[in-house]
Amino acid sequence: MLRVDQVSKHFTSGKKGQITKAVDEISLTLQPNEIFALIGESGSGKSTLAELIAGLQQPTSGTITWTEEWRESKKDKKDNEDSKDNKDNKDDKDKRDKPSSRIQLVFQNPDRSMNPYWRVKDIIAEPLRLSKYPKQKAYSLAEELLAKVKLNADFMDRYPSECSGGQKQRIAIARALSMSPTLLVADEITSALDPTIEDELLQLLLSLKQSEGMSILYITHRLDTISGFADRVAVMKDGVIQEMGETETILAEPKSEYTRALLRAVWFG
Ligand SMILES: Nc1ncnc2c1ncn2[C@@H]1O[C@H](COP(=O)(O)OP(=O)(O)OP(=O)(O)O)[C@@H](O)[C@H]1O
């Protein structure tokens, strides 16, 4: 579990030293194995909060902590898997020794995080290679990860320019999964996709949540995409959470006027 406690991020900019409260005294918890959606219009502070959670920015005040409970639950799962595995099998041992990181991020524009001159197998294997994982094993894992994101092995030797936008997002997710994250932060990853491809990607994330046993912080400005997908949602405006709770409850009975306005915009365009 991850706890965000009274976290603020204020920026000072311009000649007059104007202060922007991008995130203002936000508190929330992320539970193991849940999809938590962060909703809000452009500039409401979603990406800043996600970057604070991922440790890419430091808060002006407040604390973000991983509780022992989460660390232990991951460790227990790994210990159980280890005891089930055949200890004499070297391939399995290498997989157990695979590097991991607690948080991985996937962004709206996959082209920004992919070297256009690299083949897909090298893009997916990059985090493993940076952690000194052996090349051939990294490639064989990359192929397994491609299968997990429902792309066949032919994609291994393609370049990003030979993949569609939806396929590139799957490749970005495969790369993130290579580090067995506890939390996957997905920041507007479906914004540039058409509705059918978007829906397929959300279904993929749902199944990965189960199979990988991870949590997902899903950031979007579109309230209409999260029904049947996110377990809980926080609606943000001007750096402040307007309301937070079970997704279906908030969609059915929104308490804040801002959420109601967002829903009206979805219904009436
Ligand atoms: N480095 C920075 N310096 C000054 N202001 C910043 C900085 N980063 C973000 N902001 C401001 O903080 C506010 C929140 O920005 P943020 O990118 O978190 O919003 P967002 O909800 O993710 O928007 P979008 O959906 O457009 O990405 C905005 O007013 C933005 O201009």
From TrEMBL:
> Which InterPro entries would you find in this protein's record?
AAA+_ATPase, ABC_transp_ATP-bind, ABC_transporter-like_ATP-bd, ABC_transporter-like_CS, P-loop_NTPase
Annotated region (Disordered), positions in chain: 64-102
- The residue ranges of the ABC transporter domain are 2-263
Top-level taxon of the source organism: Bacteria
* Keyword field contains tRNA processing: no
Xref: SMART domains: AAA (SM00382)
Where is there biased composition of kind Basic and acidic residues? 68-100
Alphabetical keyword list: ATP-binding, Nucleotide-binding, Transport
**Name of the protein described by the UniProt record:** ATP-binding cassette domain-containing protein
Its source organism is Paenibacillus plantarum
